[in-house]
DNA sequence: CAGGATTTTTATACCCGGTCAACACTTAAT
DNA sequence: ATTAAGTGTTGACCGGGTATAAAAATCCTG
């Protein structure tokens, strides 16, 4: 998931102190992205052609593909900057802190500030993008698989590098479980936001869920579901 | 992952006791599938066009799409039959058995018989398909995301149905972690098979890895990676 | 400010996956 | 034999994506 700001197309720095040529590029990129997201939100991802976006952006089709490698990147592009976040959190954690604790604390902090990457954001643009993703199978697939999976690979590499025992299997499993927990949590938060609930109202439950999730990863499933049911 | 037999195109039953017309359909389906996989294995997924497959199969392009909804399904189609396996295993487990134990035992059994779904199979056709999937990002993504994720959803639903406490979060998390473990294991096995190792030789290590993986899910990560490294 | 060098944009044509609609063929039943 | 149904075929078409080369905008230098 990891849906981020959504307003940053390549750059958050809109400094006008640039070679004048860069400014135009940034502006057109933003214009294209904005028209695309608007059109998508109005009529759905598959119901809007790239040619249409190009026309509405007063730009040729080629230019669109010049800025965004594919149609999907018009929606998902901005998110891909945060791929290495989990790995970075683990790398930069305080000494003596476990991997689980580091990621838990980071996630809880992110929740507290309604970071879109947690799914707990009711900003209009973010909501539009999230709704779009959940409504479009191709996008949903690419966020979970292509994206979350890459992050998992990075995390596994980081864990392996730090694991004194150099146990690859454990590193991969740990990464998989931690990312799975994150993904589950963000997914739940996003779905909740899509129902129209305000982020602040959902915060307590989200915090609780996050704590429980990481606790589960930490202590395991045990004999879950072994009841004589 | 969950790569299955690979030889079953829609039907494993090649009974000739069918309405004579069905036989032709099955035969052409198999022919198309076989030519496709062969061509893919020779030159790569993206380097073979559907038109080419159609020509080589002595069939029109439309006919190919008639049998297989998309080009990707030419490779992945046969696997989609086993989506509900994890959910079924949990549903049909012996009373008093935990979800983890049920899935662990099933996986270990599947390993012992070199079930392709475990990744531990060195059958030629299976290897071809697996190699193809790992070499083609689009295919890899769809197997992990589209496929494994659906299985996870089914498993979560099953767990929720059986969880006396009706705790949705726990069910989702448990499903996510169990599927993540499975996916990690099958991925490792597949990669190992791709190196040319014989399945029988890799069996002991695979069994050990599986036991450790499920044990980790059962007992949690604890303070993993908390060493003062 | 002129003008060439560089970069960006555009137009065009094309490939491929996938869909649609009309037609032709085979086959089974009447 | 005729019809009706189901398939396969054909050909046109759409949309995403790429390649190429021309045109336009920008930048740098004199």
Cα radius of gyration of chain A in angstroms: 20 Å
Counted by DSSP, the helix tally of chain A is: 10
- Principal-axis shape of chain A equals globular
Biggest sheet overview of chain A: none
Write down the oligomeric state: homodimer
| Arithmetic mean pLDDT of chain A | 87
Quantity of strands of chain A, as a count:
0
Strand content of chain A: under 5%
The sequence of SSEs of chain A as H and E is: HHHHHHHHHH
> What structural class is derived from the secondary structure elements of chain A?
mainly alpha
If you had to describe this structure to a student in words, what would you say it looks like?
The structure is a homodimer of 229-residue chains. Chain A is mainly α and 229 residues long. Helix content of chain A is 65%, strand content 0%. Chain A contains ten helices and no strands. In chain A, helix 1 crosses helix 7, helix 2 packs across helix 3 and helix 7 (124-135) crosses helix 8 (137-162). The interface between A and B is large, with 50 and 50 residues.
């Amino acid at each position: 998931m990891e849906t981020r700001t959504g307003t940053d197309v390549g750059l958050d720095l809109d400094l006008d102190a640039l070679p004048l040529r860069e400014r135009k590029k940034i502006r057109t990129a933003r214009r294209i992205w904005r028209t695309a997201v608007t059109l998508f939100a109005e009529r759905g991802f598959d119901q809007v052609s790239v040619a249409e976006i190009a026309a509405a952006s007063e730009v040729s089709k080629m230019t669109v593909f010049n800025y965004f490698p594919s149609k999907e990147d018009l929606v998902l592009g901005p998110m891909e900057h945060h791929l290495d976040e989990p790995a970075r959190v683990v790398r930069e954690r305080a000494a003596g802190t476990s991997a689980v604790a580091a990621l838990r604390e980071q996630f809880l902090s992110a929740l507290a500030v309604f970071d879109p990457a947690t799914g707990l954001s009711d900003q209009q643009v973010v909501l539009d993008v999230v709704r779009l993703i959940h409504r479009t199978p191709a996008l949903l697939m690419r966020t979970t698989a292509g994206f979350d999976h890459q992050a998992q690979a990075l995390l596994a590499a980081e864990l392996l590098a730090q694991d004194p025992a150099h146990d690859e299997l454990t590193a991969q499993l740990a990464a998989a479980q931690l990312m799975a927990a994150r993904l589950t949590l963000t997914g739940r938060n996003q779905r909740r936001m899509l129902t129209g609930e305000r982020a602040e109202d959902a915060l307590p439950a989200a915090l609780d869920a996050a704590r429980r999730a990481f606790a589960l990863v930490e202590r395991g499933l045990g004999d879950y579901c072994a009841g004589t049911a």
